[in-house]
Write a structure and sequence with these properties.
about 375 residues; alpha/beta; seven-stranded parallel beta sheet; six-stranded parallel beta sheet; 13 strands
Length: about 375
């Protein structure tokens, strides 16, 4: 039984779906408890049981009701494992599972900051499970620094990339033409294209890269910013104004949300992951490697694990405009054959360490270890 706040699109939600499918394919039953969302229908299609419950709520009264509802559900469905994937549901789901004698797992999908004693306590509820999964070594180290835990209890299982979806050979030319038209770019214009995929928010580093791009001087380089501003229209306008003020209107394209990320990476030569704060995992540094694209990533957090410097891309000093300008210049001057070698190394690395199959197998192994 997986317990997750909601089932709309997102990395956490997709992992819930992936693990549910793996459980079913291994001959088990997959139950997902959530307030619901767009992925609910797909879960039902693959044979999972979806139970609606407001486990996203932080309201103490709702939490109290969730606790008893979950105990009743556990008695009825008799799951072997209760796997909680967020802090709010952990408050009710972990005690409910323990009261019914069921083994528990949690996953830290991010780095939770604690600015107060209460927040530290709240974050720490996730550590009370029998096993704690961290989505990277960086996240695991953070959890072990923050809480006095047996290191053997905290296991790093990196997020998995669907290598059937993120496969260069599977992206037809028509998809590339369609996306190029939507973005207003010419596929064969000879420009070196850098893609920064991710929601438009300051800590993702969009302003840093625009400023670094100016450091290259006149060039045949284009920056694509693909991502939703999620209502932060002021920041989007700030990015447009910054590009215009630096004379980069034709070099910076803000294209909004992209629903075809494999095609997006295939349309570009390099991917960028310049986050100003450390990423707990950072799928936008891994997915492009699966597509055979070298990555320029900030040298901190989990991206220092997922990108091999000078082999599958480059690790760059976080927040340093000059360093990023130099890195962009080096990448743009890299020959096509050298890019292809780096791209092949990146795809091989993802196959070895960050595939969906690897993630699901590691998760199922943890489940089995709790049942022996």
């Amino acid at each position: 039984m997986q317990v997750v706040p909601e089932l709309d699109t997102g990395g956490v939600e997709q992992t819930v779906v992936d693990v549910a499918r793996a459980v079913i394919e291994a001959g088990g039953r997959a139950i997902v408890v959530s307030k619901g969302g767009r992925l609910e229908g797909y879960l039902k299609q693959i044979g999972a049981v979806v139970v609606p419950l407001p486990v996203h709520s932080k309201n103490p009264y709702v939490q109290f009701k969730n606790y008893y509802a979950l105990r009743s559900l556990i008695r009825r469905e008799r799951p072997d494992i209760v796997h909680v994937r967020s802090r709010a549901p952990a408050l009710s789901a972990l005690p409910a599972a323990k009261a019914e004698g069921v083994k528990t797992v949690t996953t830290y999908h991010g780095i939770y900051k604690a600015g107060s004693g209460f927040k530290r306590w709240y974050n720490g509820r996730m550590t009370t499970a029998d096993v704690v999964i961290a989505n990277s070594d960086y996240t695991r180290d953070h959890v072990l620094r923050a809480y006095d835990l047996d290191p053997a209890k905290v296991i790093a299982v990196p997020r998995g990339v669907d290598l059937k979806k993120f496969d260069p050979a599977a992206v037809e030319s028509a998809r590339l033409d369609k996306l190029a038209k939507a973005w207003g770019i010419e596929r064969g214009d000879g420009r070196t294209r850098f893609l920064l995929a991710g929601r438009l928010t300051r800590w993702k580093g969009q302003t840093l890269v625009i400023e670094a791009l100016k450091g290259l001087g006149p060039s045949d380089v284009q920056l694509i910013l693909a991502g939703d501003d999620q209502g932060r229209s002021d920041y989007t306008q700030e990015l447009r104004a910054l590009a215009a003020g630096l004379g980069l209107e034709t070099q910076v394209k803000i294209v909004g949300h992209c629903s075809d990320m494999p095609a997006a990476y295939a349309l570009c030569d390099f991917a960028l992951a310049p986050s100003l704060e450390p990423e707990a995992f950072g799928r936008t540094a891994v997915e492009p490697q699966a597509m055979g694209r070298p990555v320029l990533a900030a040298k901190h957090g989990a991206t220092a694990e997922t990108v091999e410097d000078a082999v599958t891309g480059w690790l760059v000093t976080p927040g340093d405009v000059t360093a990023w300008a130099d890195a962009l210049r080096v990448a743009a001057l890299t020959s096509a054959p050298a890019r292809a070698v780096m791209g092949a190394a990146g795809r091989a690395r993802v196959h070895e360490r960050f595939s969906l199959e690897t993630m699901c197998a590691a998760t199922l192994d943890i489940y089995r270890s709790l049942l022996t």
